[in-house]
Structure formats: C-alpha cells, structure tokens
Amino acid sequence: DEDSSGKTFGAFRGLILRSQLIVLLKHKVFFESGKEAAKHQLTMKDFRDAYPRFQPVRTIRVSPLERECCLDLRPFMNVMPYTVHEESSISRVFHLFRAIGLRHLIVVDHHNQVVGIVTRKDLARYRQWSHMGKTRLEKIHVLDDSNSSGDE
C-alpha cells in the first residue's frame, strides 16, 4: 500500500479465509444480535467435505432475518497468521512468501493496527536475485493491457 496517510483498519485479531466463510454461511452458523452465540458443532470434516470445490457465495441462500444475525468468527479464524511490520523490507516479505508459500500477508504498525495486505500478485511485479552474498529485488515492468489505446 503506497498510501502513507497513517490510516489503519483496526486492531489485528486474526485471519479467516473466504472458503471458511462460505462453509459458515452454508451451515448457517448465525446468532441473533444481543444474544449469546450458540455452540455449533461444525467439525473439520465439514470444512474438508467442501474442499477443493467450495460453493460459490452467490448460490448460498440467506434469508432477510438471517441477514440481521451475527457470526462469531473467533472459533474458526487463525489468530496467529504470519504478519510483517510496515517497515519490513521487501526482501523479508519476498522471503516469507517463497519460503512458506504464503498467498497473502497482513501488514501491521507498531500498535498491531492493520495498515495493509500484501498478496502474491503484488510481489509478482518483482524479481529477486542474489550475487556474491547480496540479495536484490528488481521491479519488472509489465505493460498493462487495460491502459493500452488499442491503436496497434
């Protein structure tokens, strides 16, 4: 994120995947606002059975009443995913993606406030290389088809 306005998106509590949200919606793990969340008996099998073909979100039916309800994501989210500080070097970020096989990485400030997210697509614009013990990153310039005039 190149915006240096100091804007944050709240304290980082954890990470939940879209695929997990789909399973939760499909199994209607809702509770009414102001009431205690019910203990749902979702198991790993429920998540495994949906893998790798997760139902498209648009096919999940949620009633108007259910839309007013809440979802408690805490039992399902990863509260300790990899994060990087906003002042981390791009070399460190690149190394984390390559060594661990990450798809996305949350960027936080010194108060653990979310300031951004780095994705594989963000890093695809860079090439890492090493020479004589030094690691360097080089930006790859890619022509964006959406900006072309079509006069070719």
UniProtKB/TrEMBL annotation:
Pfam families the record matches: CBS (PF00571)
Keyword Mitochondrion on entry: no
GO cellular component terms given for this protein: lysosomal membrane
GO molecular function, one term: chloride transmembrane transporter activity
TM region(s), chain numbering: none
Keyword set, alphabetical order: CBS domain, Chloride, Ion transport, Repeat, Transport
InterPro entries: CBS_dom (IPR000644), CBS_dom_sf (IPR046342), Cl-channel/antiporter (IPR051280)
Keyword Magnesium listed: no
PANTHER family with a match to the protein in the record: CHLORIDE CHANNEL PROTEIN CLC FAMILY MEMBER (PTHR11689), H(+)_CL(-) EXCHANGE TRANSPORTER 7 (PTHR11689:SF136)
Name recorded for this polypeptide: H(+) Cl(-) exchange transporter 7-like
Native source organism of the sequence: Paramuricea clavata (Red gorgonian)
